């Protein structure tokens, strides 16, 4: 989920070394409230796993959830601004407050949701929305794989349950946490809960405000979508090389908007830019 965080840096972290570093001694140590704990001293209900070769212990308990939640609070607060923008856009597209909140609660993917409501017309272009959201969210397969060395040592319920609330920002926080050797397997879940609470709450606020305002265009608020993506573009800027795919996407979208009915110009512009990048890096 892109909420305006540094997505470029987040993807760059995929290439970082994700090997779990072994620890000295029979059991790994992890930091929990400033105290050093061992698997044998774990409180009841705490789940931990340790490989036979003495690799780092991965725990899954409430202290890890709490640490993740508190660490992510400042970022989640910033995410709230984008949630308000999404709520207003959703109301402009015709969704009710309840429908907007339901989408945020079940999808939890900011950029994909914004694209979806921008494509939202009557009749709903299901194929276009599915293809667009799939293309935008494919990066999560790489990001989830990067967490594999740690989450893979937890039960499927805990690992996949944590991945359900993974976004760009809390993924980057979790990678840093895991690579520090803390062994807190529940950290991702804690950060995800913080993101989810702020995203859904801010969506409700934005949707309610959007309904009270009426026509956003009369206040210039209809520009919010463009403003959101300008902010995202600033975060993604990596220098002059970034201009090439951006200009290709712009030119393709402008031509497609004039020739192709509906909102397909958004997808075509994105695919054209992606194709150019593949040719540039593989050629």
From TrEMBL:
One of its GO terms (biological process) is L-valine transmembrane transport. Keywords: Cell membrane, Membrane, Transmembrane, Transmembrane helix, Transport. The chain crosses the membrane at residues 67-89, 101-120, 126-151, 185-213, 219-237, 244-266. The keyword Transport applies. It comes from the Archaea. Coiled coil: none annotated. It is found in: Cell membrane. Residues 25-53 are annotated as: Disordered. It is a multi-pass membrane protein. One of its GO terms (cellular component) is plasma membrane. Belongs to the AzlC family. This is AzlC family protein. It comes from Natrinema gari JCM 14663.
